Amino acid sequence: MSQLKNRIEQHIEMIATYTATPGNGTTRLTYSKEDLQTRNYLKEQMQAAGLTVKEDGFGNIFGKLEGSNPDAPSVLIGSHFDSVPNGGAYDGPAGVVAALEVANLFQQHNIKPTYPLEIVALVEEEGSRFGGGLMGSRGITGLLRKGDFHQLQDKDGISPKEAMQDIGLDPSLPKMRDPKTMKAFLELHIEQGPILEEKNIPIGVVESIVGLTQYEITVKGQAGHAGTTPMDKRADALITAAKIVSTLPDFAIKEGNGTVLTTGQLNVFPNGSNVIPDKVIFTVDIRSGEEENVRHVINQMLQCVDSHQGIGIEIDVEEKLYIRPKALSETIRNQLKEQSENCGIAFCSINSGAGHDAMVFSDVTDVGMLFIPSKAGLSHCPEEWSDVAHIANAVEIFYETAKQLTEAK
Ligand code: GLV
Ligand code: MN
Ligand code: MN
Predict the structure, then answer these.
(1) Would the CA dihedral through 223, 225, 227, 233 be positive or negative?
(2) Is the pLDDT assigned to residue 233 strictly greater than 90?
(3) Measured between alpha carbons, how far is 2 from 239 in angstroms, rounded to an integer?
(4) Could you say which ligand is closest to the alpha carbon of residue 209?
(5) Mean of the pLDDT values across residues 378-383?
(6) Which of 70, 81, 263, 286 is most enclosed, with most CB atoms within 10 A?
(7) DSSP state of 73
(8) Which residues contact 312 (CB under 8 A, 6 or more apart)?
C-alpha cells in the first residue's frame, strides 16, 4: 500500500510540473506544450505498465491490455488531463493516475483479463481552450459531430486541427468509437466540494451528475472616444453586458433546488481605457440536478437578453453545451459499494455538482464513478489538494471491480 501511495504521489508531482504557470497552479491547455509533456509522460507510463498505446483523432490517449477474447468490448478506466487556468494538480490527473495504477496492479499480479482493459486519458474536458468542455468524451461517443469539431476555435482563432498538428498529433486518425467496443467506463475524480471531508468518509460512490449548459453571449455596440462622446449618445457594449451579468444570478437563486449560475469569462474589446467598448463576449454556465430547473433559468436568461436588445446594441446568444442530468449505472454502483466493503474502505453515496466525462460515456455504456475528499472543498484553484492515500483506496476498489468486469483470471 505504501508503495502504491508513493507511486501515485510521484505521478501527481511529476504531472504538476507540466504547467504554464509555475508557482501559480496548473495551467495545462489542450494541445499546448504542457499537454505534450504530460502526454509523453503518460504514454511512457502506460507502456511501462505493459499496455499498447494509441491516440485517436482528438489526441485522446488509450493504453490497452488485450483480453483473452480480443474482440470483446473493453472496460475503460480514466479521466482527463487538461486543466482550467491556474487550477489544481488533482482535477483530472487523479483519475488518470488511478487508472494507470490499476493497470500496474494487473501487470504486477499477472492478471489476465477476458475482456480488454483500457486506460484512457482524455483531452479538453474543461473547455478552457476551445469552449464548451467534455470535448474528448463527446468526440469518442459521437456527441460532438465532425463538423462541430472543425468549427471550434481558441481565443486566437486557432482550430483544434492546427493546434494538434503543432504538437505532432494526427487529426485524421479515427475519432468516434463504436459503442459496441465499450463494456463499461470507470472514473475516479476529486469531489471538488466539502461533503466527504466534513463526513470524514474516504470514498463517495456517485449516484448522479448534474445537468449543465454553457452559453456564450456576444454584446455588440459602437466604439467611440471616452472623452468626446456624450453619455446619452453611447452604445456601450460593456454597460449592457454588466447589466445582464448582474441580473442572471437572481434567476438561479429564485429557482432554488441547488440551481447555480456562473459567469466565469468576460472579454472586453478593444479593451482600451479611453475607448467605449464595442464588443463584450461572456459565458454563462447553468447547472441543476433537475433538468426543468436548468430549462427554466435558460428561458429567463433569454428573456433578459432580449430585453436589452436596443438602439445600437445587438446581442447574440450561442449554446455551447447542453447535457441532461445523468444517473449512473445501478449495477456498477452496487459493485463499487460491494468492493469498498470487501476492501474495508468506508463509503457513502454522493451526487456530483461538477460535470465529468463519465456523464457523456453514460449515454453509450455502463458508468461507475468514485469521489475522494477535497481539502476544504476547494477545486479549480492552486490550493486544490487531495490525499494520495485516498487515491490509493480508489485504486484498490477499481482494481477489484475491473477484475470482475473484465472477467479476469
Ligand atoms: C468541470 O470541471 C466542470 O464541472 O465544469
Ligand atoms: Mn475534472
Ligand atoms: Mn474541472
Answers:
(1) negative
(2) yes
(3) 56
(4) 1
(5) 98
(6) 81
(7) P
(8) 221, 222, 234, 235
Distance 355 CA to ligand 1 centre (A): 5
* Chain segment 285-341, per-residue pLDDT in tens: 999 999 999 999 999 999 999 999 998 999 999 999 999 999 999 999 999 999 999
**Placement of cell 468514485 in the chain:** 370
pTM summary value: 0.93
- Mutual angle of helices 388-405 and 2-16, in 10-degree steps: 110
- Beta strand spans in 230-338 (E): 260-262, 266-269, 275-276, 279-288, 314-323, 326-327
Q: Give the Å distance between the CA of 92 and the centre of ligand 2.
A: 5
Cβ contacts of residue 251 below 8 Å, gap of 6+? 261, 297, 300, 301, 304
Which residue has cell 449516484? 207
Mutate to test the pocket of ligand 1, among 122, 356, 374, 378 (most ligand atoms within 8 A of CB): 356
The answer to whether residues 216 and 285 touch, using CB atoms and an 8 Å cutoff, is no
